[in-house]
Amino acid sequence: MPHRLNILKTSVLVLVLIALAGCGNSNNFRLGVQLMQDQPRLDPYEASTFFEDGSAARTLVDGTVARGQLRIDEQMYTGQVNGEFTSTFPMPVTAEVLARGQERFDIYCAPCHGPAADGNGVVAEFGVKPPPSFHQDRLREAPPGYFFNVITNGFGLMFNYSARVSPADRWAIIAYVRALQLNPDVDVASISAADLQKIEGK
User: Fold this and answer.
1) pLDDT at 26 over 70
2) Dihedral (C-alpha) 117, 149, 159, 71: value to the nearest 10 degrees?
3) Residue 112 near residue 130, CB atoms below 8 Å
4) Among 6, 67, 104, 124, which is least packed by CB within 10 angstroms?
5) What are phi and psi of 185, to 5 degrees?
6) Taking the model in full, what pTM does it have?
7) 58, 59, 71 from 62: Cα distances, Å
8) Would you kindly state where each structural domain of the chain is located, as residue ranges?
């Protein structure tokens, strides 16, 4: 048994030495061997003699789309269908969607538009012109795609929220605004199926 233990220890030692031999070794540089852990590369913004402009950074090829950002659903990502503001939502409106919309609305919209979307937000106390109430006929009749466009691109004093609010959250906010237009005291946790259909425009 001790003999087998010594063989095992020796084998482990040999394997460790082999592994260490593959690590960096200054002798390899003298021999002109390229080490795997020291692969040739250019750091960001480093100068390069390979390209005519002298820069290692390259512009993206036209039409390049980042992974996970292929946005082929026109309605979802523009709020339009065939160049017109969509009158429907790109996904089913559920109580969960409304709950998410309420959360996002309270964070991003309520300071200006007020918790009931009536334009009585806290910013008016600091001299900012209050926005219009969402309960006026013009905005009650505006299609959901119109609201998506305003959130995405801004309107008047309101700057765009495209970098702050994801497309899915924009739609959730719009669904919640529609719920507020039905009832400013809406309880999204117990909203009826009939009201959900009204919100969806069905």
Assistant:
1) no
2) 120
3) yes
4) 67
5) -105, 25
6) 0.70
7) 12, 9, 16
8) 74-200
Per-residue CA distances from 77 to 7, 89, 160 (Å): 66, 11, 14
Query: Which amino acid, one-letter code, is at 177?
Result: V
Instruction: In whole angstroms, give the CA distance from residue 23 to residue 36.
Output: 9
Tell which CATH architecture fits domain 74-200. Orthogonal Bundle (1.10)
Taking a C-beta distance cutoff of 8 angstroms, is the pair 111, 126 a contact? no
**SS3 of 26, please?**
helix
Going by the DSSP 8-state scheme, the letter that residue 23 receives in this structure is S
| Maximum Cα–Cα distance across the chain | 93
Give dist(CA 118, CA 115) in Å, integer. Answer: 8
SS3 state at 155: strand
- Token pair listed for 75: 């309605």
Q: Does residue 148 carry a pLDDT above 70?
A: yes
- What tokens does 23 get? 């690590």
For residues 135-163, one letter each, b for 16 or more C-beta atoms within 10 angstroms of the residue's C-beta and e for the rest, the string is eeeebeebbbbbbbbbbbeeeeeeeebee
